[in-house]
């Protein structure tokens, strides 16, 4: 089972000084900043998924690349751009897709098959996913006799299958240098099965299952079960953007060879409480927002409700308190009092005191052996600024990768056998996936 991390240009600055909160004056983002796979000595992912939608940066959603970065990616290719050949003897795979979520609201995808193929060839990806159109609705009831399936859902599936057919033809005729994946979009178990059958008929042997993001585990399993019932012996599956991976072992039995998920990384700074992952549970991160970078607090300051000086002082007290607590110089209750006062000053309504007590009592960052926690100490648990928050996301990715290995039984040989190498694999020995 291969884990792909979707690229969203999440990098950290190794020169960042966490005590003084300063960067090196000579730091060059593109040259010096590090991706998740560069921060750890150990492997944390098997591949990077790059979306045309993110790279092109349409105004409507999710553009993350500057013009210069985009040009550079297309010029040098993904392997060099992401520096993935530099240290690992087991190559990290690259996969391209369209980023269908960036145009989910459009009636038809904004890209032609030609444009997408050009993008994949320029980037030199190992795998390329056909152009698709996401179906966001899902209900098993639509499989019952007499059920009325909205016309728009059928249209989206038709569009996706037509584009997959054109994509495959072009790939075959021009002998393109990547392995193609056709996308199965559906609204129910049976419609997913139908899409899979069509894609196999077109010629696909690697199928990306889309529209999984909002689905609960039983729904994913039902859809995969239906797909599995029509799946050819040599057809492999990729799950596009799943957030539920508790049943990854069952996924594997149903032909899933790879998936991508951004949630371990994002939860570090998007979730209300599941910000810091361990092998067995999650913890909340301790919120100490910057006075200057917090719009809510700035509003309270400018309206006269809060004094700027007082806010700065409390912020400093919280940061010092956490440092001294980590060093064993301060009782947990004292830190909690400061955090609570700063929280109230910021006008936060949620009460974090007890969840903070839990994380501060357990101090999970002290037990983590990942490179981020060892280097960063207590800063990793502070919810404050991109440099800390992203590193916590990287830590979560490291934990996630290890959890996955545990769920899959950890046997690297077994996993290697289940995983087929990318077409340009330069492996000399069995991959040490999930070691
Ligand atoms: Zn860690």
Description:
- The protein is α/β, with parallel strands linked by helices.
- It has 2 domains: 216 residues, Queuine tRNA-ribosyltransferase-like (TIM Barrel), CATH 3.20.20.105; 116 residues, no CATH class.
- Helices cover 45% and strands 10% of the residues.
- It is built from 19 helices and 12 strands.
- The strands form 3 sheets. Strands 1-2-3-4-5-6-7-8 form an 8-stranded parallel beta barrel. Strands 9-10 form a two-stranded antiparallel sheet.
- Helix 7 runs parallel beside helix 8 and helix 8 packs across helix 9.
- The chain is globular, with a radius of gyration of 23 Å.
Structural class by helix and strand composition: alpha/beta
Total E-strand runs: 12
Global morphology:
globular
- Summed up, the helix count is 19
- Assign the CATH architecture of the largest domain: Alpha-Beta Barrel
Provide the list of bound ligands, each named once. Answer: zinc ion
Arithmetic mean pLDDT: 91
